[in-house]
Amino acid sequence: MGKTDTHQEQRESLVEVGKLCYERRYICGTEGNFSIRLGENLLLTTPASTCKGRLKPDELVLTDLEGKPIEGQTHRPSTELAMHITAYQKRPDIKAIVHAHPTVAVGFTVAGQSLAKCVLPEVVCTLGFIPVAPYATPSTNEVSESISELVTKYDALVMDHHGALALGKDIWDAYYKLETLEHHAETMLVAHLLGGVKTLRKPQVEKLLDIVGVYGLQKPASAEALLSPDACTVDGDN
């Protein structure tokens, strides 16, 4: 069996995620890049300069963990694959990455507004604190440097004036985190338009962090940051 057929299920899932991101306008044109770690030294990733909403499974690219295409590939890997490789090297527990440009989440960085607020219980439990990586020139080593430390602690982050990065145990887990991130941003935007964001109180956030196990989750590594005055309301009680 050839390499093209070996990971057909992963190929089809990655293609479907690309279509969903395109349909939901998390990307446009040839934006975005996605990857799946198939083994210790094997990645499946999207090709450069292609619309990720129109990909076919056999157009995806196999590379090693240095980003070098495996022999026989007909397409070039994403120009931002180095960012994915950095995340995989820092987080051996993650198996997939979704990088897109969700409009509202990115709009918050353009406006200089923080998404790191405890507003939705589901977001507190699943994503935790949402940091912003400093601005970096796309498709350069600056991008890897900007996210290098953040990915060790966070599964979802926003990149200043650029996009968002979501890490997961598989490609669907990564996609759902991206979806949750943009939903959070949309809710925050509506709250701003209606007069302002009312954050959860610290005791409420503490209770949420205590019950994450009910959902089969672990307490976010960013729990301490979630309890800071910048993220939740610390004066008063429930």
Q: How would you explain this protein's 3D organization?
A:
The chain has helices spanning 3-6, 8-23, 81-90, 103-110, 121-126, 141-147, 171-193, 202-210, 223-226, and strands at 33-39, 42-45, 61-63, 96-100, 132-133, 156-159, 163-168. With 238 residues, it is α+β, with helices and mostly antiparallel strands. Strand 6 (156-159) and strand 7 form a beta hairpin. Helix 3 (81-90) packs parallel to helix 6 (141-147) and helix 4 packs across helix 7 (171-193). The termini are far apart.
Please supply descriptive tags for the structure shown above.
238 residues, alpha+beta, L-fuculose-1-phosphate Aldolase, 7-stranded mixed β-sheet, 9 helices, 7 strands
Q: How many strand elements?
A: 7
What structural class results from the helix and strand content?
alpha+beta
Order of helices and strands: HHEEEHEHHEHEEHHH
Main β sheet profile: 7 strands, mixed
Strand content: 5-15%
The radius of gyration is 18 Å
User: What would CATH call the architecture?
Assistant: 3-Layer(aba) Sandwich
Task: Say which CATH homologous superfamily is assigned.
Answer: Class II aldolase/adducin N-terminal domain
Q: In total, how many domains does the architecture comprise?
A: 1
Record the strand order, biggest sheet. 3-2-1-4-7-6-5
Low-confidence stretches: none
Report the total helices: 9
Mean pLDDT: 93
Global shape: globular
> What is the name of the CATH topology?
L-fuculose-1-phosphate Aldolase
Gap between N and C termini = 60 Å
